[in-house]
Amino acid sequence: LAVIASGGAARLYGVLIDASPALTTFLWLGTEALLCVLLLAALWKTRQLDLD
Asked: Can you tell me the distance from the alpha carbon of 23 to that of 46, in angstroms, rounded to the nearest whole number?
């Protein structure tokens, strides 16, 4: 699912790159960071459930 989402985001950002490279880079990094945080939160929650 993350691969599909990042693929769609890559196409979307591909259009934005022509408009503003700096803004695109900022949005890309922000999105990547957010995805990492969500992934870690999901893993932590499943681990907590396993421990219980």
From this structure: 35
